[in-house]
């Protein structure tokens, strides 16, 4: 399996040289500034789906990943998935759920309607070490990185940005790993107290937390700026674990297959997924699963007040917000107004025309967005093709989150986090008869206790080991958005 950049030149260039999975594993952006995607999406047959229904999560992950990581020996890949997806790693399951299922499903409601029934299901993705769905991919990434570096004796300096969950998932996956250092940017004082403590309380010498005076998009822009400085990136051995990293996206494809197989009994059935969405990485994995042949009816992007994705899927206009227009909300991991992975979908939407993608995203940089609505003066009319990819969207507000958290606690006896509440609120607007709707859980409620306390009047339950995390000593530095200063800080701590 070879990989191409979404912005590859039509003439032969570095970005068009054949790249395999291991070649792009440690990096993020392609040298031309684009994102990697496979040359084609491998297809899954009905016979394979039937055979996969009885597999463990680790074995299912192996079957899917081997279609993409064709350059890793099968025995090695199987050992890596077996090491990653264990009930010991994903032990923070809710009472009554089996940790060995890794991503257990819970039917929230089933309502009889004319012609059949509507079903709302929650897929638990937050049972890992940092209580967020990011662990599903990041734990695998840590093991893949260590495996790859050990083969060559190389080292890697991970430079990333987080709005809350990616950072802690990356740091917990990479802490103590030989040959790896982590430099993680986060918006200063814009994460929950729990999220902040999870990251900043880590004292491992290979973990460096940098709080940036700005919003998440400022952090993300700095990561891209450093990634585009190719000489510096090579000299400092910079890699990324942000959702632009292809290995992270493909690891997330697995739980779409798992959710579908667990919710159905026949390949004739379809399901839909609602995904709380900020950077478009999670729902991009659903798009890839659907392109592989998984019987998905709808992929519903649920946003908060930062609704750049909802606006596109309603109007065809992709309009990036400025930092001053980005709201700080009670679902802070989605306080994102420039969705990095969106480029991967646009590449497919415009017929994999890389020159077109390059022009559209150049316009994002110069004009703050583009318009595919087909209206006079627009940049194209591909918005009319969106429906064939199954995408829908919706938006949720702080009041909606509070109301949904209360409803779910009252009706189903469980406490959900704020992002999952956004998902459930929007999912209810897109239910179809006889098509189960699976909402992907973002995190456990304990990570956003301030809002849970506001909604329910009681603290969210905390898994064992997290009782007093905010009281632990914290190690971090505060910096402004000066890329040169950031580069100097990294260089000073790598010694390269």
UniProtKB/TrEMBL annotation:
CDD domains: Thr-synth_2. One of its GO terms (biological process) is threonine biosynthetic process. Keywords: Lyase, Pyridoxal phosphate. It holds the Pfam family Thr_synth_N. GO terms for molecular function: threonine synthase activity. Residues 2-85 form the Threonine synthase N-terminal domain. Its EC number is 4.2.3.1. The keyword Metal-binding does not apply. Its cofactor is pyridoxal 5'-phosphate. It comes from the Bacteria. The modification N6-(pyridoxal phosphate)lysine is found at residue 134. The keyword Lyase applies. NCBIfam families: thrC. Belongs to the threonine synthase family. This is Threonine synthase. It comes from Janthinobacterium psychrotolerans.
């Amino acid at each position: 399996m070879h990989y191409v950049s979404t912005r590859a030149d039509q003439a032969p260039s570095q970005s068009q040289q054949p790249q395999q999975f291991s070649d792009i594993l440690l990096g993020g952006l392609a040298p031309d500034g684009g994102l990697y995607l496979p040359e084609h999406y491998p297809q899954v047959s009905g016979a394979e789906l039937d055979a996969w229904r009885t597999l463990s999560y680790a074995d299912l992950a192996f079957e899917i990943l081997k279609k993409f990581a064709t350059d890793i020996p099968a025995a090695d890949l199987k050992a890596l998935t077996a090491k990653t997806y264990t009930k010991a790693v994903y032990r923070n399951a809710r009472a009554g759920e089996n940790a060995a299922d890794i991503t257990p499903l819970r039917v929230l409601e089933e309502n009889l309607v004319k012609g059949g029934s509507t079903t709302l299901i929650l897929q638990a993705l937050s049972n890992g070490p940092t209580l967020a769905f990011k662990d599903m991919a990041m734990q695998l990434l840590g093991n893949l990185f260590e495996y790859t570096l050990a083969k060559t004796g190389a080292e890697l300096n991970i430079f990333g940005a987080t709005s809350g969950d990616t950072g802690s998932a990356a740091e917990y996956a990479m802490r103590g790993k030989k040959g790896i250092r982590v430099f993680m940017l986060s918006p200063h004082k814009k994460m929950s107290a729990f999220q902040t403590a999870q990251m900043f309380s880590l004292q491992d010498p290979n973990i460096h937390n940098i709080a940036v005076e700005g919003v998440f998009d400022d952090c993300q822009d700095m990561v891209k700026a450093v990634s585009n400085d190719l000489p510096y990136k090579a000299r400092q051995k910079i890699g990324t674990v942000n959702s632009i990293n292809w290995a992270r996206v493909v690891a997330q494809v697995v739980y779409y297959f798992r959710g579908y197989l667990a919710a159905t009994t026949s390949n004739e059935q379809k399901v839909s997924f609602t995904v709380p969405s900020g950077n478009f990485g999670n729902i991009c994995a659903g798009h890839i699963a659907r392109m592989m042949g998984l019987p998905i009816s709808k992929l519903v992007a649920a946003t908060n007040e930062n609704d750049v994705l909802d606006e596109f899927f309603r109007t065809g206009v992709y309009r990036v917000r400025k930092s001053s227009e980005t709201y700080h909300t009670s679902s802070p991991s989605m306080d994102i107004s420039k969705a990095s992975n969106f480029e991967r979908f646009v590449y497919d939407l415009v017929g994999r025309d890389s020159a077109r993608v390059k022009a559209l995203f150049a316009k994002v940089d110069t004009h703050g967005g583009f318009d595919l609505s087909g209206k006079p003066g627009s940049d194209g009319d591909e918005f009319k093709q969106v429906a064939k990819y199954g995408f829908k969207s919706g938006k949720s507000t702080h009041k909606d989150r509070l109301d949904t958290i209360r409803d779910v606690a009252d009706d189903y006896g469980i406490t959900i986090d704020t992002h999952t509440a956004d998902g459930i609120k929007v999912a209810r607007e897109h239910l179809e008869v006889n098509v189960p709707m699976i909402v992907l859980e973002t995190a456990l409620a304990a990570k956003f206790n301030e809002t849970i306390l506001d909604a329910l009047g009681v603290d969210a339950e905390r898994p064992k080991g997290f009782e007093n995390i905010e009281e632990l000593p914290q190690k971090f530095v505060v910096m402004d958005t000066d890329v040169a200063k950031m580069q100097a800080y990294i260089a000073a701590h790598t010694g390269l």
